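B., you asked whether I could sanity-check this one before it goes into the benchmark set. Here's the sequence:
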Amino acid sequence: MTADELKRMPKIDLHCHLDGSLSKKFLQKRLARTVSSEEIEVSSNCNSLEEYLEKFALPCSCIQDEEGLEEAGEDILETMSLENVCYAEIRFAPLLSVTESMDCAQVIAALLRGLEKGKKKFGVEYNVITCAMRNHSEADNLRMIQTAREFLGAGVCAVDLAGAEAQYPMSEFMELFRKTKTIGMPFTIHAGECQSAQNIEDALTVGADRIGHGIAMQGNERLKKIVRESGIGVEMCPISNLQTKAVKNPMDYPIREFLDAQIAVSVNTDNRTVSNTSLTKELQWVQNRYGINDKEVLLLMENAAKTAFLEETKKTELCRKIRKFVIE
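And here's what the prediction gave me:
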C-alpha cells in the first residue's frame, strides 16, 4: 500500500504508552514553555532500553493532576485520529501520577474522562491498560491492579507489567500475576524485549493473554509453537525495538519469522513521541524492509482486532471495518 492508503486505512494500536505519546503541543501548554525535540525524542545513538526510558520524566511531570490527565486523554486520541486509528488500547502507570491529593482511583478516573471527551471529539474508540511497574513493590502493584479491576469494562480492559525488563525479570512477578488472574483481570506483559525467552515463558505460565514485544522468541521453535497454538497475541513495535537495541541489526528483526510461523502478530507504535513514529510509519517500515505485502498488512490489523481486549462482537466489527476499506 502507498503511504496515503496506509494513513487512510482504519487502524488499531494495541501497544501505545500515554506518557511516551503526548504531543509537543500538549507538553508546551502544560509546561508553559517551548519544548525541543531533543527533550522528548530519543536520539539515533540510543544504546539501551534504560537510556530510552529516560525520555519519560518530562511527560510524566505533565500528568500529575486531574486536569493534566484529562487533557492528556484528549491529546492522545487527537493524535491518533490524524492517521485514522479507529481503536486503541492506551497504557499508563497510574502510580506514577498518584500524589497526596490524588489517589489511584482518581488518577484512572481522570484519564478516562479525558479519553471519553477525546472519543466524542475525534471518533477514536479506546480502552485503557494500567501498568504495574517493575521497580514498584508487589504490595503497591497489587493495590493498583485491584483498583483497576473496579474499572474493568468501564474504560479499563487489562493490566500490564512495564519498566526495565533486564533489571527485573518476570520470575519476580509470578505471584503478582497469579493473584491478578485470580481476581479475573486480563493482562498483557512486556516480555522478551531484552533477550530473555524465559521472561516470555514465565508470562505465559501465569496466563498472559498477550505478550508485549516478544523479540526473544526468535529462533525458539518450541516457544513459537506454544504461542501460535494458544492464540496469544504478540504486540510488536518495530521502530522502538530498534531504537532500544532490542534488535541490533534492522534486518534481524523477527516480524517475518513470526508471521511465517502463523503467530498473531500486530504492529504498534509503543511511544509515538519518544520514538517519533505513527502507525502509518511503522507499517511503511515493515513493508519496505521485511517484504510485508498488502494482504499481510491486512492480516496484521486483523490480528490486532482478534487479540484486542474486547468482546467478540466488537472484534468482528473492527475486522469488518478494515476489510471494507480494502475492498473499497
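One thing to flag: The first helix runs from residue 3 to 8. Otherwise nothing jumped out at me.
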